[in-house]
Amino acid sequence: MVLTVQNVMKSFPGADGDVPVLRGVSLSLERGETLALTGESGSGKSTLLHLIGGLDKVDDGSITVAGREITSMNDRDRSALRRTEVGVIFQQFNLIPSLTVEANIAFQARLGGAFDADHAARLSRALGLGDHLSKYPEALSGGQQQRVAIARTLTARPKLVLADEPTGNLDEATASEVLGQMLRLVRETGAALLMVTHSQSVARRMGRHVHLSQGHVV
Ligand SMILES: Nc1ncnc2c1ncn2[C@@H]1O[C@H](COP(=O)(O)OP(=O)(O)OP(=O)(O)O)[C@@H](O)[C@H]1O
Question: What angle do the packed helices 172-189 and 117-126 form, to 10 degrees?
Answer without folding.
Answer: 150
